[in-house]
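Hey L., structure's done. Input below.
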Amino acid sequence: MLSPPAWPRGIVRRLQESLADTPVVLLNGPRQSGKTTLVRQFATEQRPGFIRRLDGAVIDEVQRVPELLLAIKLAVDDRRRPGRFLLTGSADVMALPRVADSLAGRLEVLSLLPLAGCELAGQPSAWIDALFSALAAEKAPPSPPPDQAAAQVGEALEKRVLTGGYPEALHRSSEKRRQAWARSYLNAILQRDVHDIASIDKLQSLPQLLTALAQVCGQLCNYTQLGARIGLDSKTVTRYITLLEQLFLVRRVPAWSANALARVVKTPKLQFLDSGLLSALLGLRLAELVTNRTAFGPALECYVYAELLRLASWSEDSYELFMYRDKDQLEVDVVIANGLGQLVGVEVKATASVQAAQCAGLRRLASQAGDRFLGGVILYDGIQTLPMGSLAGRPIWALPLASLWHSPPLP
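Output:
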């Protein structure tokens, strides 16, 4: 396994661009996702003289010292020039009181999530940009050669998903040690980092809530029912989920909708931001998946959602991720929308083959989105790229899941 500094990070180009024209840049993301390693490497190796140009102001874990933000604002207002301050944070600093107001117009926020598959493969990719471009031109989307895809199916895919993308987990020698690290990591976050951003009661309920959320990952979440299982009311559950979002553990995925779509379900779906942490909470084991592959489905969907978030964080265009579900229970796992409002639907299947019946959700999305629908893909545990016909005149493709990490590199 490569050592962490050898993993190229897709966000580097965006970081360089931001520091070239913005006074304050914040690299935000979960603890141990590689922020400090990247900032140290960026400051001392890739950009000689970087520290001098910043006046020495590289500040790690800024959420612990929010009082510094006023001083940063005053310093920037006194001498406004690009790249003066590079900050990192292990909580959503922009959600903290005073931060958004104090640095409005002076700050750009970038996200560094745990390692993406293409980063682990040594070549950060432009998969989402390439996908939109291909579907708009009615060409085949980016996909790996069958021999590359063949090495990433079945048990190899399961191991990738159950491991997740945290560098420390990737360095553990066995599944048992990886899951022990994940449990220790989560315990530290809930016991220590929560206090950096909030003052809450019933702290002992957070581990129970996190485990309960793992059990409904990928589903629409009824907060009243969920809270009743662990003795919390729905308002408290909502507040605690917001806290877990600020710590980059979970994300509420909003439903895609357009005007007058009366049949669309507006309740958000809940996803974890790392499939390795989710797998540890659920106690998933590779050996058990041989006879119970159904349990793999939610973990795989979680992995793909997090992978798309990572790819979107450094893409050329701006993208948002949604889900789609209507009152007939037809759904699409992920809906990617670009800055123009054009859509691509993504279905995730833990199967080695695909059928036309698996396009039902995409068909409904296409009918509702109209001209905004560029096409759809079904990501599956196979090796071939297959045309699946068209919906509303737009192409649908089945792609190997390996296409996510073996596709055109960043320009």
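The two ends are 26 Å apart (CA to CA). The longest strand covers residues 331-338.

-- N.
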